[in-house]
Amino acid sequence: MINIRTRLTYQFVVLVTLILLLFSLGVYFFSKLYLEKRFYKRLQDRAITTTTLLFDLQQTDSTVLRLIDAAGKEALLNENISVYNTATREVLFSTNPANTQFHEQFIPQLDSAAQTLYLRRNEYQIVAIHLNRTGGGNWVIVSGIDQVGKDALADLKKILLIMILAAVLLLGVSGWLFADRALAPMSRIVQQVTTIFPANVQRRVEHPNRSDEIGVLVATFNQLLDRIEQALYTQKMFIANVSHELKNPLTKINSQIDVALIQKRDADAYERTLQSLQEDTRTLTQLTNTLLELANTSIQASTMPFEPVRLDELLWECKTQLQAWHDDYQVRLTFPDFPDDEDALIVQGNRAALRVLLMNLMDNACKFSPTHTAQVEFLAKDEHINLTVFNEGPQIPPADLPHIFQPFFRSNATAQSSKGHGVGLAVVAQITQLHRGDITVQSTPKGTTFSLILPSLGHLS
User: Fold this and answer.
1) Which end of the chain is more exposed for a tag (fewer CB within 10 A), N or C?
2) Same domain, 340 and 446
3) What are all long-range contacts of 58-65, with beta carbons under 8 Å and residues at least 24 apart?
4) Residues 332, 446 within the same domain
5) CA-based diameter of the chain, in Å?
6) Between 424-434 and 351-368, two packed helices, what is the crossing angle to 10 degrees?
């Protein structure tokens, strides 16, 4: 495959060569026109000189010939001058009587209405001038070959060809050097990128000019490196937190089994041990399910099937299911302004994912509320569905609010009041983003409010 440097050189050479060819053709064409015009002017001067000597001075033929030759600054190749009378239809005078037939073939083309005619036959250029006199109209016909002009055009062609060949060679060298200089920043970028590894992913590509196209490319590449660094950091934290979260219940389960096997115990002791193991197993199962939800949301985002989902009905289903799982949980739903249009209640999304989102929000609110109560307000307006979930739990510090949607993050204000793994809200954030929605959180001493906004079916259509 041809590299960019070679391709740029080829394109540069071809483009400039085409321009040189067009320029050379233009020079050759206009030079040819100029030489033809100049030679016609010389023939016209010969005709005027002949007319003056023959008719005004009334000289003899031999005298006219000598005077015409003397008047010419340089001889014309195959020059022939004839005077034709239209009344008698005879050639009155010719500098080459033996070749009068050459001029006679142009007599049918002579137009009395024209003053001067310019003709061409093979290599010959012909000028015919009409004279109106009392003895009848006369035509002075002068012909010749512009050998000097032909030689000049031939020399010009050779010069242009040599110059074009030399220019192509020079363009190839200069184009190669120009492409090398133009791509030098890219080579430096490649060298810098090859030194970036996961161990030093915090390094960034440097470029002196941030305003040119390469500078924009470098800025975009650095933004990509920022995202990669963040992804690697999140992955490391994810692995570390998962290991820690899985290690605790597994160690606890293993320790309780070891203690139970040291010596025989009564049935009550074994029952208490099994209940403790059951609780640890539930914790481990909950963590595993939450991690699977987080992974599925990230991996299957592009293949997740979407369908119209009526959100108010799904909200009632989630409320019923959550209260069935936890007898002490209370979810209070309010609909301040229920719309008449059914489309205002429908969102285009994945029903299972939306169920996980709503369940996590309500479970989180009930878990941190002293009364285990979540207050949910449903409002559909402006082609969006606004859902607020409020709990009277402890205030989350403002410094922790930007991080609560990160996996495994737990605020110190809430970590002591309830057990958890810090994954549920990360799942909520990913599902919300997947459905082109927005979720925010506000926390005051009175409680914490999560505000969820999803586009309704009317907005999407």
Assistant:
1) N
2) yes
3) 61/93, 64/93, 65/95
4) yes
5) 159
6) 140
* Alpha carbon of residue 115 to chain centroid: 64
Mean pLDDT for each 10-residue chunk of the chain (461 residues)? Answer: 78 89 93 90 83 64 55 68 81 78 82 80 87 71 88 92 91 86 82 79 80 83 83 68 67 81 81 82 72 60 77 91 86 87 85 85 89 92 89 86 73 53 74 88 90 79 48
**CA distances, 82 to each of 60, 61, 216 (Å):** 15, 12, 78
23 token code pair: 């320029």
How many angstroms separate the Cα of 124 from the Cα of each of 145, 146, 182?
Answer: 5, 8, 55
Q: What is the CATH number of the domain that holds 72?
A: 3.30.450.20
> Does residue 348 lie in a domain region?
yes
Residue type, 304: M
Nearest to 237 by CA among 428, 441, 426: 426
Whether 228 contacts 200, CB under 8 Å: no
**CA 21 – CA 18 distance, rounded (Å):** 5
Residues 6+ apart with CB under 8 A from 70: none
CA distance 397 to 448: 11
Tokens 């483009």, located at residue: 15
The CA–CA distances, whole Å, from 232 to 200, 201, 228, 365 equal 11, 9, 6, 31
| Contacts of 401 by beta carbon, 8 Å cutoff, 6+ apart | 441, 443
174/197 Cα distance (integer angstroms): 37
Give the number of domains in the chain.
3
Size (the chain), residues: 461
What is the distance between the alpha carbons of residues 430 and 436, in angstroms, rounded to a whole number?
Answer: 10
Q: Are residues 390 and 338 in the same domain?
A: yes
| Three-class SS state of 307 | strand
Q: Which 3 state secondary structure label does DSSP give 78? A: strand
Whether 336 and 279 share a structural domain = no
What is the pLDDT, as a whole number, of residue 158?
94
User: Based on the domain organization, do 339 and 254 belong to the same domain?
Assistant: no
| Domain-ending residue, one of 115, 137, 153 | 153
- Answer yes or no: is 385 within a domain: yes
Question: Which residue type, as a one-letter code, is found at position 95?
Answer: T
Judgement on whether residues 147 and 239 belong to the same structural domain of the protein: no
From CA 392, how far away is CA 414, in angstroms rounded?
12
CA distances, 217 to each of 7, 212, 214 (Å): 21, 9, 5
Domain final residue pick, 128, 153, 178: 153
